[in-house]
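Marked as duplicate of an earlier ticket. Keeping the data here for the record.
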Amino acid sequence: MTTKQVGLIEKVLRMWSEGKSGTEIALATNISRSAVQGHLHRARQNHDARAKLRGQMNSHMYLAMKRASLAQDAYGEILAKRPKPEPKPKPTEKELPRPKDPPPPPPQARLLEHLSRNSCRYCYSDEAPYLLCGEPTSASSSWCEEHRRIVFKFVRTKPLTPRELAL
């Protein structure tokens, strides 16, 4: 470290201990405010007493000041203590409804290995054995007409036009 840098650090620490702000020190020393804070931070890491943080106090002093400020209003009159809010009642545990048993698969349900290319692949349950419908489908669909209505629910986004109503 050069003597110029040492002199700059000494000047920053002296001005800080005099109560100058970081901006004032930065303007006086012609360095950025971040550089001033960096010099102070490194001095604190080296346990330099001149770089101590301002505004620190013991926690018990802070609490005593907080209690004193809460006890008086802006006009110096003592205020009554606020009542503590009542605790919220604990929610009662409701018994959750049991899920309904899935309906038994129809007698024509088949395993996947027994389906052909144009067979309906609607699955009756999510548990093994995976039983599928197996009814014949059109060439462009994986489901029969009955299950296609279940899988694709048509939702109209706009009202019917008079022409559509006439059909």
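See parent ticket for discussion. The chain has a mean pLDDT of 78.
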